[in-house]
Amino acid sequence: MTGPALVALDIAGEAQPWEAVGLTVAHEVAQVGDVTLRFGEEGEGIVGWALRAIDGPPVLDGLRTLWLPEPTLPSAPVEHELGAVAVDHVVVATPDVRRTFAAFEAAGLVLRRERDAGNAERPLRQGFFRHGEAVVEVVGPREADGDAPARFWGLTLVVADLDAAVDRLGPGRCHAPRAAVQPGRRIATLRREAGLPVRVALMTPEA
Fold first, then answer.
1. First to last CA, the chain
2. pTM of the entire predicted model
3. Within the chain, which residues score under 50 in pLDDT?
4. Interacting residues of 115 by C-beta distance below 8 A, sequence separation 6+
5. Distances (CA, A) of 67 to 33, 85, 114, 124
């Protein structure tokens, strides 16, 4: 699929908590499938990303963005004790999904699917963009609620063996697996006790 593909995420804080949950990190970098996780940034959570494309705005609806015209080669080990093999998706939260959809589309991303989510008390709208291995999921209220910028909310990693990964982390750091929204797949979310600065979930591979 042509278009801007996710190739890197810049994450605040030290790499040690990520190593503790089972990622292999070298020189503050972990390679998970096609996506490079770069640690040691200032700030909180995910603070920026890199997209493979010729050019684009340095801030994409509030998200610090680096544009890389050439494919990048892995610069860190790709084998992980956690069994992580890919980034399934990164979640972007916004108070105005239509504004963020428009900003992404103006930068060359294609809105491939959208759906209603949430509940009666908190109705949400989700949109999905995919041009590479990882999906970019944009979520926000169905009706615009302010003009704050979009922000990174979390990410989901694909693991080769979800049950083994959950057993490795233990119930103190990870919730039990449950059925995912995607048919035939399961997901487990890490607890705050895992010590990561980002909301992280683990997921079975696509069928």
1. 19
2. 0.94
3. none
4. 125, 126
5. 19, 24, 25, 29
